[in-house]
Each structure stands twice: as C-alpha cells, then as structure tokens.
Amino acid sequence: MLKCGDTFLTGDGDEDNFHLWIIVTPPSEGEVLTVCMVTATKKTERLVQLAPGDHPFVRHDSAISYGFSRIRTVADIESLLANCLVRPKEPMPPNVLSRIQSGVIDSDFTPNGVRAFYRAVMD
Questions:
Q1: What is the CATH number of domain 7-122?
Q2: For 9-40, what is each residue's pLDDT tens digit?
Q3: 61-114 residue pLDDT tens
Q4: Between 41 and 24, where is the model more confident?
Q5: At a CB cut-off of 8 Å and minimum separation 6, what does 35 contact?
C-alpha cells in the first residue's frame, strides 16, 4: 500500500534521464498527490531546493517543480510498480517531506485543482 512520503522514478534510458516523484498526501478516495523533483537550472522554480543528503537519489542541486504536480490514482501507481514501468525508491525523510508539502500551497506554479485537492486531504 502506498503512503505519504513514498517515492518512485519515471523516465527513459539510464537513471540520469529519470525524475523522482514524491507522494505528498496520504491516499484519499484512492488518489494521492505527487510532485516531481528536477535538476535545478536557471529557469527552475527554486521555492523548495534539495541537495545531496536530502534523499539518496539526490546527487546534485535539485528542486521540486510544482507545475508538474499530479493527482494520481493509487491503483495506477501500484500497477506501474507491479509491471516494473516505474521504480520504487527510498521514502522521503519526514523533515524533507514537510518542506516539500509546504511548497504545494506556497508555489505560484501549483495548478489550482492540485492545490484544492491538497487542502481537502490535508486540512
């Protein structure tokens, strides 16, 4: 069963082309909210930055890209995991997860429907 803080990789080719997705809400009516970690560049939103040591997958300066936030069904993620179409990674440490969750509301790039889902689940 998926839970808040679980992470998984999606992408093509070698691991350098993958993105880490973080589940930032507990399941609610079979759905969770996921956010994506990306490599930090000049154009990247920098509201929540991650550095090596924040999570085993973080090898260089990275950031959460709230514009890519998605509401997903637990069944879809579990199916992708079962069919090896995404790869599970270590859970996000609670202190880092808390920073990431704060950004869902604070980011100007979080889609309104995603923000509303987050508030409904977390309030």
A1: 2.30.30
A2: 987 655 556 789 999 999 999 999 999 999 99
A3: 999 999 999 999 999 999 999 999 999 999 999 999 999 999 999 999 999 999
A4: 24
A5: 21, 22, 24, 64, 65, 66, 68, 69, 100, 103, 104
The CA-based angle 66-48-5, given to 5 degrees, is: 75
CA dist 26 and 42 (Å) reads: 32
Q: How many CB atoms lie within 10 A of CB 48?
A: 21
Which letter, b or e, does each residue of 28-42 get, where b requires 16 or more Cβ atoms within 10 Å of its Cβ? Answer: eeebbbbbbbbebee
Pick from 44, 69, 39, 33: which is nearest to 57 by CA? 39
Count of residues for the chain?
Answer: 123
Lookup result for tokens 């679980």: 6
Three-state DSSP at 13 gives: coil
68 φ, ψ (degrees, to nearest 5): -95, 5
- Domain spans, the chain: 7-122
pTM, two decimal places: 0.93
CB 17 within 8 A of CB 11: yes
